[in-house]
């Protein structure tokens, strides 16, 4: 049997798979990365920025608990188009709020709406992908969807920051960002209109009208927590990204902050090119290579070495903070090394989540795993801004290195109950 889909199905999938996963990646990047640069540009203190933007992880933490609703109310297709319009309205709301004196609370509320719409869109898009094409076609297009998801990260962390930076040279910072979010809103209006016509209309999956949604959810949760050594596995999921969860919230403020405050004094456009374009590119390359290494040698052999490769490059930020280079090449090199290591090590983490999810209710269990993954990013992010304020940037990045110790200990104790090879985890974008 060939691994390629049939010709009609292949060409039809090309009309919606790339755009669907671009639409999935962009709002996530806006919520998690672009918002940090936005508030830093608006001179919001780091501790407030880190706390507020970390709270935005909550929809991804709790999305497994409302994911069954997507399957029993309406269709995945309708949810996709509706959530894309909701994303557009939320981005437009941010643009409007930035022109008002009460911008801070209003913009955060709009980002909160954007986060919930994005998390709901994730559920619907993944469900539609599985129902919209045969299984062999799904496997063939996995790399395509992953590529366009990463292109959305480039557009968010790179292009949007570059646009905001260039506009800031011609107008006030709030106005520049308002136009940037207006452009993003326009993109999502166009995506929603396009998908209204381009998405196929697969037959609705059969539903058992007598089935108890509450019982199904309870059984899903019960079987998840009945897995062997689940406590150690949860500890691993919460701590594996403990250093990175703090670094990611302060990296852009550090790059943008004045040198008098310990930052590097870059402008927004430079951060867009270095942290957005270069950083995301190296993150992608690291993830691909990490998936290849993990699939070749197996998770049992690779988990600890890949964790070390993930955390060790954080030393690059320690060097930047203490040495304060004034030229772009060493800054770009440090960002590239750190992001490559993050992508390489994160592949092992995703492989672990897939292994832990195996068995009955695999899809729901993977959603629960990603919920713990988001919780592990949210909780440290809530307090890391206060740590940085107390320590300064230089010793904060030293603290990030020390934070690798509990992460590595949790990795050492992580239960590995299955010996099967996991496949290429680099195709799972988050």
List the topology elements.
Layout: H1 7-14, H2 17-41, H3 46-55, H4 58-62, H5 67-72, H6 76-97, H7 103-132, H8 135-168, H9 173-198, H10 213-225, H11 230-239, H12 242-256, H13 268-297, H14 299-311, H15 315-323, H16 328-357, H17 362-402, H18 404-413
Helix pairs in contact: 2-3, 2-7, 2-8, 2-9, 2-12, 3-17, 6-7, 6-9, 8-9, 8-13, 11-17, 11-18, 12-17, 13-14, 13-16, 14-16, 14-18, 15-16, 15-17, 16-17
CATH class of the largest domain: Mainly Alpha
Can you write the helix and strand succession as a string? HHHHHHHHHHHHHHHHHH
Anisotropy-based shape: globular
Largest sheet: none
Named at the architecture level, the CATH assignment of the largest domain is: Up-down Bundle
CATH superfamily caption of the largest domain: MFS general substrate transporter like domains
**Structure classification:** mainly alpha
What fraction strand? Answer: under 5%
Description:
- The structure is a single chain.
- It contains 18 helices and no strands.
- It has helices at residues 7-14, 17-41, 46-55, 58-62, 67-72, 76-97, 103-132, 135-168, 173-198, 213-225, 230-239, 242-256, 268-297, 299-311, 315-323, 328-357, 362-402, 404-413.
- Mean pLDDT is 87; it is low at 418-430.
- The protein is mainly α.
């Amino acid at each position: 049997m060939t691994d390629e889909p049939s010709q009609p199905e292949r060409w039809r999938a090309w009309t919606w798979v790339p755009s669907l996963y671009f639409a999935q990646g962009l709002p996530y990047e806006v919520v998690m990365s672009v918002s940090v640069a936005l508030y830093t540009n608006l001179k919001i203190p780091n501790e407030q920025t880190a706390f507020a933007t970390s709270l935005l992880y909550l929809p991804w933490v709790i999305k497994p608990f409302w994911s069954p609703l997507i399957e029993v109310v309406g269709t995945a297709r309708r949810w996709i188009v509706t959530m894309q319009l909701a994303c557009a309205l939320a981005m437009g709301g941010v643009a409007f709020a930035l022109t008002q004196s009460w911008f801070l609370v209003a913009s955060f509320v709009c980002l909160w709406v954007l986060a919930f719409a994005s998390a709901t869109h994730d559920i619907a898009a993944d469900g539609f992908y599985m129902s919209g094409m045969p299984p062999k076609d799904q496997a063939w297009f996995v790399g395509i969807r992953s590529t366009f998801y990463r292109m959305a990260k480039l557009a968010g962390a790179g292009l949007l920051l570059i646009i905001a930076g260039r506009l800031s040279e011609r107008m006030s910072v709030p106005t520049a960002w308002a136009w940037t979010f207006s452009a993003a809103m326009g993109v999502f209006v166009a995506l929603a209109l396009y998908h209204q016509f381009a998405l196929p209309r697969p037959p609705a999956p059969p539903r058992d009208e007598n089935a108890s949604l509450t019982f199904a959810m309870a059984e899903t949760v019960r079987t998840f927590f009945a897995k062997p050594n689940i406590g150690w596995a949860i500890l691993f999921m919460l701590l594996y990204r403990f250093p990175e969860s703090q670094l990611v919230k302060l990296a852009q403020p550090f790059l943008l902050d004045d040198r008098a405050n310990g930052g590097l004094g870059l402008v927004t456009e430079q951060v867009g090119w270095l942290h957005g374009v270069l950083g995301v590119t190296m993150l992608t390359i690291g993830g691909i290579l990490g998936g290849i290494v993990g699939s070749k040698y197996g998770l049992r052999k690779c988990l600890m070495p890949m964790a070390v490769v993930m955390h060790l490059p954080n030393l690059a930020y320690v060097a930047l903070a203490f040495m304060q280079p004034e030229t772009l090449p060493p800054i770009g090199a440090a960002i590239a090394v750190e992001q490559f290591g993050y992508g390489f090590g994160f592949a092992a983490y995703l492989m672990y989540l897939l292994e832990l999810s195996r068995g009955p209710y695999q899809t729901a269990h993977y959603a629960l795993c990603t919920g713990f993954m988001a919780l592990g990013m949210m909780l440290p992010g809530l307090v890391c801004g206060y740590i940085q304020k107390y320590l300064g940037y230089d010793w904060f990045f030293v603290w990030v290195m020390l934070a690798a110790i509990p992460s590595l200990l949790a990795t050492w104790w992580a239960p590995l109950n299955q010996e099967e090879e996991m496949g290429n985890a680099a195709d799972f974008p988050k």
